[in-house]
Amino acid sequence: MGYYDSKECRQSLLYHENIANSGQKFSTPITLALLENKTYLILDGNHRIASIFTTNTKDSFLLEAWIGY
User: Which of 9, 24, 51, 60 sits CB 3.0–4.6 Å from 16 for a disulfide?
Assistant: First the structure.
């Protein structure tokens, strides 16, 4: 399996990092599925989640989510 790199993915991550660094809120919540083993599957929002970890704002950033079962 080869390495996957996408300009659009990098741009999305940078865009969300700028929002996280500025203290703004993301325009849409992430979407998660709660699995039977009490873990979550990210259905939408992986770049938003990644951005709060790459900017080290995970302890102070309020991340809204929709959670389905």
Answer: 51
Are 19 and 26 in contact by the 8 Å Cβ rule? The answer is: yes
Structure letter (DSSP) for residue 17: H
14 — phi, psi (to 5°)? -60, -40
| Residue 65, pLDDT score | 96
pLDDT at 1 over 60: no
Q: Of 1, 26, 31, which Cα lies nearest the Cα of 12?
A: 26
Compute the half-sphere exposure of residue 30: CA atoms within 13 Å on the CB side of its CA.
Answer: 19
DSSP string, 18-66: HHHHHT---SS-EEEEE-TTS-EEEEE-HHHHHHHHHTT-TTT----EE
